[in-house]
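User: Can you fold this complex?
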Amino acid sequence: MKHDLMFRDEIESIVARAYRELENPQGPAMGLYDPEQHSGLPESVQSWALWVGNPLRHAGLQPGETVLDLGSGSGIDVLVAARQVGEAGKAIGIDMLPEMVERSELFAEEAGISNVEFILGRMDDIPLEDGSVDVIISNGSINLAARKSRVFAEAQRVLRKGGRFCVSDLTIDEEDLPTEILTHPSAWAG
Amino acid sequence: MKRVGFTNIEVVNREPFGIDQARLYPLFTGDVIELMVNLIPPEQQDRIAVSITVTADNPA
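Assistant: Here's the predicted assembly.
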């Protein structure tokens, strides 16, 4: 934890800069989604699929549930989740970059999906009440957080008792990668 | 996750993630891709990381 705190600002700066500089990522992760998940989403939305897995395939969302996506980025998983929980439910995305929150709101409007909310905030300090969501998902974002233990603690706090957590992310075996790569900024921002 | 109270923690999916996939992500810059190609043995380049999906419960 001490190590994480020492470098938190530097790590967040690297991650924020990398995401802010993105222009047209060409949807490298769309192949990870099931066709019925992205069916009907505008191409402009799909081009921003930058995820590493498909947590929604395993989250077992039910109509009426409230879902929270940690590090929601451009918001695609939030939109897919919103369709799964239906109008009686709600999907919330939280991201630390205003650019991503604005893009998510635009994409939701383009997709015609209204049961969503996008919050500017941090995964390690979630601005939601205790026990206020039924399901938490995340896709390729927690690996970018400087204080991962704090993210898990916050997730547990806002999740209701009996709630579910489902996350896709990248992990590495540090012994398999050379030091030059492990210490490169992209090792955080990627 | 276990330390903060999650239970039934389970890895439900595991997929290798290689350099060719990393190339598709703008966040992996050209210089780090080049570094990986040069420093990682060819037989490991299709699994530089693992994409995992983990599920867990918050106890009732």
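The longest strand of chain B covers residues 7-17. The first helix of chain B runs from residue 19 to 22.
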